[in-house]
Each structure stands twice: as C-alpha cells, then as structure tokens.
Amino acid sequence: MTTRAGFVALIGEPNAGKSTLLNTMVGAKVSIVTHKVQTTRARIRGVAMEGNSQIVFVDTPGLFQPRRRLDRAMVAAAWGGAADADVVVLMVEAHRGVTAGVERILDGMSEIGQGRTVALAINKIDRVEAPVLLGLTKDLNERFDFAETFMISAEKGHGVDALRQWLAGQVPEGPWLYPEDQIADLPMRMIAAEMTREKLTLRLHQELPYQLTVETEAWEERKDGSAKVDQIIYVSRDGHKGIVLGHRGETIKAVSKAAREELAEFLGRKVHLFLQVKVREKWLDEAERYDQMGLDFKDGNA
Predict the structure, then answer these.
(1) CB of 142 closer than 8 Å to CB of 171
(2) Coil vs helix vs strand at 59
(3) Which of 57, 85, 112, 178 lies 20 to 30 A from 119 at CA?
C-alpha cells in the first residue's frame, strides 16, 4: 500500500475560519474557535486521515498588522508555518472579499509560494450570492496562480470533503508521521490550557483576552481514572485579576465549569479542574511564556 503524508498550512486573516476548518477536517476540537480575532497563538497541528493519506494541518495565527511583541511573534509563526508546509491553503471570507489584509498576504505569498502548491479556499460562501463568488474567484486567481479553488463553508461542512480529498492527493508519498488514531501533536496540557483560554475569551471583552495567558501547571492521573488539572491564568495588571474573577467569583466559576466540561468530554472521563489567577506585569516580555504558547520569543523583536 502506497501511503502519503505531509503538512498543510492554513493561512489567512484573523477570523477567516481557519480554526473552524481545522476542527471540521480533523473531526475534533483541537484549535479554539471564538468570535474574537487573534485567538490562535501557536501553530496547532491537527491530523486527519483520508484514504491512505495522512494530512497534518498547521493552523497558523491570523495574519494582521502587528503592533506588540506578541503580535509580531504570532505573525512570524504564521509565515513560518506556511514556509515549512508541503501545501498552503489561503482562506478568504467570501463576504469580505479582497481586503487590504488579503492584499498584504498575497504580496507575502509570492515569496513562500515558489515551488509550493497553494490552493484557495473561499469560506462562508452562504453569505453571498453566486455572481459575487464568481467575481471574487476570478479576481483572486488573476492576482495569484492558485493550483485549485474551493468554495466552502467550514462551519456547515460544505465543500470540506472535496478539499480534504484533494489535499490527500497533494501531500507527498511517504510513511505516516503520526499514529493513525492521533488527532493532534499538541501535549494535552496545552490543549487543556487553550480550552480554558477560549472560555475566558468568550466571557471577557475588549483588550483583556489578549492581556492574559493560561498555563497548565500540574496534571495528575488519579487511580479512579479521573484527571486533576491545575492551571494558572496570568494577567498583566491587578485590575485585570478582579475582572477575571468577577463579582463574588462568578466569572472564574463559570469559566472553570465550562472548561472542565469540555475537557472531560474531550478526554472521555471525569476531570477536576482548579484555576488560579496571578498577576505578572511583564508576562508579555517573558521568553518562558512564549515557549509555553509554542511561539519564538525572538520573533517578537521589532
């Protein structure tokens, strides 16, 4: 039996639907999905099987104009993921069309696209009429030589099977890179931390979600089959700690309950989750925090 395996990088603007597509392709939640931009920080890999092919997805942070060290590290990770991949899929939102951000990405792709297969996936096609879709497809293909164009709805699953089948034929011949039943190469500690961060992002507003990070400090496997998980939420100011805790601790309790339930469902067993909130004013400038997120601290340099 001839097997295939390779890396596929999903790139695009923040909120283009990359995490949703990854989760749909893999069939499990390995990348956090929220309504807020810039939620994916690390290059999260999800593994999908299609026939004799193993497709390893690299879900990169959204590409945007960076302002802070963390932003710059995220953008560097995104381009790094694309440059290392066998196949690149550019995701564009149908209803937003060719924005200034998409134009910047197309300019950058002229460098990483050399000798690499690049496909276009126009997402959220249910939001526009057919003539708009056709016009956008023509416009984008005139700007870049895409190997193939797919019309998809990552959320509803439309067109996703066709994209996965095509990718299966594009990855190079070779042995599988991961066990057949493995869906992600992230440590469970990081997946658990991402789940908690998602719940915080959904409940909190404005800039605060980008001023905090979550780390899994301890993971204990108990004799009864359950897991005890201790996590720390780092915030950069005292005032932020109060916001995360909420009135009489209501916010942190709700976050803990939602994260615990999702992690238990993901693992298929009982989870005891304990959250602490700590103030670290300079966490955005600490190399160790970036290592925990799978980002390169040096890439954040101006």
Answers:
(1) no
(2) strand
(3) 178
What is the DSSP code (8-state) at residue 116? S
Count of CB atoms within 10 A of residue 294's CB?
16
pTM: 0.59
287/295 Cα distance (integer angstroms): 9
The type of residue at 128 is: V
Q: Are 5 and 182 in contact (CB under 8 A)?
A: no
Q: Where do runs of H (alpha helix) occur along the chain?
A: 18-26, 69-84, 100-112, 130-143, 160-170, 188-203, 238-245, 250-267, 287-292
Q: What are phi and psi of 66, to 5 degrees?
A: -75, 145
Q: What is the largest CA-CA distance in the chain?
A: 60
Q: Tokens 């416009």 correspond to what residue?
A: 139
The bridge status of strand 227-235 relative to strand 4-12 is unpaired
Average pLDDT per 10 consecutive residues for the chain, totaling 302 residues: 87 82 77 45 68 81 50 53 75 90 79 74 94 94 93 93 95 84 64 86 67 84 88 86 89 93 86 91 63 56 49
Cβ-based neighbour number of residue 155 at 10 Å: 16
- The full set of domains in the chain, from first to last, is 4-170 (3.40.50.300), 188-300 (3.30.300.20)
If we measure between CA atoms, which residue out of 105, 64, 103 comes closest to residue 88? 105
